[in-house]
Amino acid sequence: MKIVDIREVALPLQGQIANAVVNFAEHDVSLLALVTDVVRNGRPLVGLAFNSIGRFAQSGILRHRLLPRVQQAAPQSLLDDGGTRWDPARVLAIALKNEKPGGHGDRAGAAAAIELAVWDLNAKLADEPAWATLARACGRPVSLTPVDVYAAGGYYYAGGSGHSLGDELRRYRDMGYQAFKMKIGGASLTDDLRRIEEALTVAGAGSRLAVDANGRFDLASATAYAQAMAGYGLRWFEEAGDPLDYDLNRAVADLGLGPVATGENLFSCQDVRNLARFGGMRAGRDVFQMDPGLSYGIGEYLRMLEVLEQSGFSRRQCYPHGGHLINLHIVAGLGLGGCESYPGVFQPFGGYSPACRVEGSTVMPSDAPGFGLEQKPELSAPIAQLLA
Ligand code: MG
């Protein structure tokens, strides 16, 4: 049983959208395939994954450093002791050979694409959805409960463009979503408050609307926004300031004006430990958004959860960044709080496949083997091209 080929392609994200800090028009994603000599239904079994969304493809790090190490490794060294499955931790360790600790950055996303593809492969070997493989591997009950979900988006639209924030959120509502997240910080406070009120006409209640500043604010601006938004009772205030400015996060939390959310730009359990120690995060209240696809995959994410639970937080406070199929399976398999969805943007990766039912503000993964990426219509052509 061996991996006979590894393929990677950088796929551009579709859409001309922007948040407070970046325009996504230039963003792309690494789609990765681990092709094996195992044959199922007359075809080679293939593990598929990608390095989350809202960042960049990692073709350089993958092709020049990580993938050659995996390709040159003895096939047996990538398997578990029984030789019946690939071992995600062993594959990752080989991919990261000769890499120094720390300095996580883009390498963490590149490595995650490989590690997650191994999980997809193992789930397909067992002919089961990835959430079930993950639950079993972690000693959790292999039973599926509906996953809390919100539609993320809420971008900026130029006046006279024919598009509006309200229209965007209404489209998500028509798809079955009842909770939403929108961007702030890309306009004046006055304009953003007007946008929040426009969004609330769709969400219906502040508890169904979160706002995301993408790390834009200094403490004075973050405080001004937190105070101005306090009356809306919003679900959370995400990444008010620089993701590594734990003291700013603590200061915003200490205002006591509502839940805060952060973590999508922390790529290691050491960073999460520092957030837990110094970031002022409150048990049972604030939200952790670390994303396995940006941070070495599921193994590192499990260590992050351990750090959080040892620090008195609940895994129900975790809503990973990245509204796509891989994180849906991870949330379902690990019993996390919920996940986001990008039903309108970040195609071909954003959102779920039609077989994943969205209703009553919850979503259920389908029973497709692995992460079910092949079931997503927008991904089927890129996957076919990658494997051709
Ligand atoms: Mg965010």
Report what the structure shows:
With 388 residues, the protein is α/β, with parallel strands linked by helices. It has 12 helices and 12 strands. Strands 4, 5, 6, 7, 8, 9, 10, 11 and 12 form a 9-stranded mixed sheet that branches. α3 crosses α4. The longest helix is centred in the first third of the chain and has 21 residues. The chain is globular and about 60 Å long. The mean pLDDT is 95. Bound molecules: magnesium ion (MG).
Short summary:
The protein is α/β, with parallel strands linked by helices and 388 residues long.
Biggest beta sheet summary: 9 strands, mixed
The dominant shape is globular
Associated small molecules: magnesium ion
Output the number of helix runs.
12
